[in-house]
Amino acid sequence: MGKVVGPVLKLFFVVLFMSSSVHGSSNIEEKRESDHWFQKLHYSKQKLTRLHFYFHDIVSGQAQTTVMVVSPAKTVKPSPTLFGQVNMFDNPLTKGPELTSKLLGRAQGLYGFASQVDISLLVAMTFIVTNGRHDGSS
User: What are residue 126's phi and psi, to 5 degrees?
Assistant: First the structure.
């Protein structure tokens, strides 16, 4: 089962960071209405901030940043989707792709395997910036 978790987590984080929010783009008319409302506010100047960092999720070894806090559901037949398993993480965010690169902050949260049929994750995550221009932000 441990051999499944590594590739599943890598796939999850690739999909997480490369996909866009379905809800945010699903209703164009609703977006126009909220933009119109926003522009009427007296403090409506829009600000765009682009953050660029590398997320390191280390699932094994001495520098492990992810731990299982709830085991998968106990059933007659073990779940191939790890249904019920919950992992907690405290991952470094770095400036470059190397783990030794400058630390910019941490990604902290948890994820649970939420489906008995498919690989499906429920994620709660906070980014805490501890270095650089946005130090103190979360």
Answer: -125, 135
Place of tokens 């130090």: 135
Determine the 3-state secondary structure of 24 from DSSP: helix
Instruction: Name 32's Cβ contacts closer than 8 Å, sequence gap at least 6.
Output: none
Residues 89-112: b if buried by 16+ CB within 10 A, e if exposed = bebbbbeeeeeeeebbbbbbeebb
- The per-residue pLDDT string of the chain (138 residues; one tens digit each, 9 = 90 and over) reads 455 555 555 555 545 554 444 444 445 666 677 777 767 776 656 677 787 889 999 999 998 999 999 998 777 678 889 999 999 999 999 999 999 999 999 999 999 999 988 999 999 999 999 886 767 666
113 C-beta neighbours (distance < 10 Å), count: 24
Distance CA 64, CA 61 (A): 5
**Where do we find the tokens 């994820």?**
111
For residue 6, which phi and psi values (nearest 5 degrees)?
Answer: -55, -55
As a whole number of angstroms, the distance between CA 81 and CA 58 comes to 20
